[in-house]
User: What shape does this take?
Amino acid sequence: MQNHSTTGNGASLRYGVLALSATLVLSACGSNAEGGDGDGQGGGTLTFGLDSDVPSLVTPQNQGSASMMLNSVLHRGLVMYDESGEIVPALAEEFEDEDFQTYTFHLREGLTFHDGTDLTSEDVKATLEHLADPDTVAKLYPVAQGIESIETPDERTVIVHLEEPDAAFLSYLADVSGAILPSETIGNDGPTYVGAGPFQYVSYEEGSAFVVQRFEDYYEDEQPHFDEIEFQVLPDQAARDNALLTGSADMISFVGWTNYAQVEANDGLVLDETMGPFMYLQFNVESDSPFSDPRVRQAVAYAVDREAVVESALGGEGAPMYGMPVPEDSEFYNPDLDKWYEQDLDRARELLAEAGYPDGFTARMLSSSQYDFHQNTALSVQNDLEQIGIELEMNLPDWPTRLDLGAEGEYDIAVYGTVGTTNDPAWMDQMLTPAGAQNAPYGYDDETVNDLLDKGRRASDLAERQEVYNELGEYILEEAPVIGLAWRSQAYGYSTELEGFAHIPGFLTFTSGYTLDQAHFTEE
Amino acid sequence: MNRLAAFLRELKSPGNFLAALFLALLVAGALLAPWLAPHSPVAHGNERLISPEADHLLGTDQFGRDIFSRLITGARVDLLVSFGAAALAAVLGVVIGLIGGTTKGFPRMLAMRGIEVILAFPPIVFALLVVTLFGPGSLTLILTMGILFAPQFARVVYGEVLTISNLEYVQASRVMGSSSLRVLFLVILPGALPPVLVQLSMTVATSMLLSSGLSYLGLGVVPPTPSWGGMIAEGQAIMMTSPGLLFFSSAAVVATVLCFSVLADALEKSLDPRRSRKRGAVRQAPKATVA
Assistant: This one.
């Protein structure tokens, strides 16, 4: 018996082993998503391959790019962005300000939420107060907390008084997380599906699909054109790209870099890319970290090969960042601050020696294995720093753990990627002050930086603001609490039959869903 | 010696021979990797993602690292981990099995119910737990998988011991006054070892697969140290444009696991007492020696 049992056991084990190894290989090949093709004239269903699941949508919070897409079709705020990134009226048909301190919004007539209730100035007031509540953990909290009082003289007028002038107030309100919510739902648990956007919620199946349908009472009479949008949750890169390539999705977010060429070569598909997000290094500047000395941080800035990061981590689809993260088409762009650090290993070694580390040292690097470009950026930097004697011990946990460790300062040097909340440099408080939590270098709380950021917000004149941000840029590049590595290309891929969608450029890439209210299939 | 001869005879079949040859080359390659590797397995280069050529036998990856050098260097880690885990599992399993098979009452219950607790864990989940608690690395992998795979050995040994201890020669030894330890280690254990050997070669294959899987998930060997699972993960990201990395690393895992399975099969045949007599002899129906 024992021999028999061993034989049977061995055989089944062996086949199990083979089956497993086949799975290991096959899992790399991805799979096709299923789903209907939404071709039609006017109307029709848009099938959209979304990069991540959003188990519980909380509109005011920063829940990542996929939630921004859902918010942009379900919701509208007082103002929004048009296809070129200009701030345009949304729920407010007109707005004006006095010295960037008092903002007056006139709401459109006859606005309703998806549930049929009227949208009035009271809802606006309740929403803005909700954003200013620290317990909400709102993405717009940094601006909302500067609200002194809100007046609602009538149902369609809202007057917001700020404590200090804030030139960036409107660009923040235009973010999808600034959507106006029905006052009676505010503070309720559960997802925030009811809004005043062009589409209303139909169904959600965790890990699978999120469906919205045309909202008949949307404030733009003729819009939206689609009857329905079906968001298929396709977090796997290969599966998502395949869904687009095989036509089972009309559109996808986050086309994988390695598939750019394939999408471009396909006559039926459009690759719509922008340089928006970027990768950077953050340092733990607490006194027990070797990186508390700015010279050591500068040495790193001189040592990294940014071209190599673009080539090895971003598949060549990006651009090296030698200076400040300000897009070239921004009115705050300064060419002098754009080319600051170039690779210069001798200079880097000199700086290290000056700082008292002629033979280098060992430090802890934090990144994540969940996103290959995060891990590969870390590996590329590790190789560069080895050449100036800095040995990096890698810690590459999953993404949520990486965020926790980052917020707790469990690193000496870390790789991170982000995107500006607005095109206005005021967003940099999220990268340079403790308000940014894991986005900011641990322990960095610099008075000069904080003052300059405040000044930049308060200054009302563009020239004055430019000057402030130039000063900030120069200071940051010298201090180097963070070091820019590379702009990352971000692309939507969609069928050539889709018209009216626009990729809002630069930092605003993730708000591009705003333009889906004008999108439709070509009519033949 | 009979068994060794039988095993060598099994190797005469082409499939078994190829498997043995491949594994011998692999082990030699892994041992000599520092001298054999034409390039440093971790140094970045400027020739990224090139196809196989004279200087880079299997091409390069996205960092310009030589894939061939990384594969044979990665084999060191993968083989060390899988052999280490299998050996640890065998030692633990044999001890537990002996305790279970030769004692009664509480110790037996503790040993045999204990392994059932381990068996109840899905291997990947258990590995995830340990790696999350103690951090990734080769040693963690060996310990985790050593514990995970011990129950299979314990069961095999337990069954063998129960059967063997009732056989005449064991009883004879007892009657002649051998101490119980002597009976256990010098009389019973040798008889129980052949199936353990087969289990061992199976376990090497299984642990290689699991360790690749864990490295693939980013829980095994820490990059930039090469490991096959890690290379598969890196290769997956770029498979559309440069399938080479994914192909070669996956092929290495599949081939190695396959060869170990084939050899385990050969080993099992050669150790089977019913076959160790004349080949072609009429097989007797196996006696039901119930464990």
Chain A is about 30% helix and 20% strand. Confidence is low (pLDDT under 50) at residues 1-41 of chain A. Chain A touches chain B through 46 residues (CB under 8 Å). The first helix of chain A runs from residue 2 to 26.
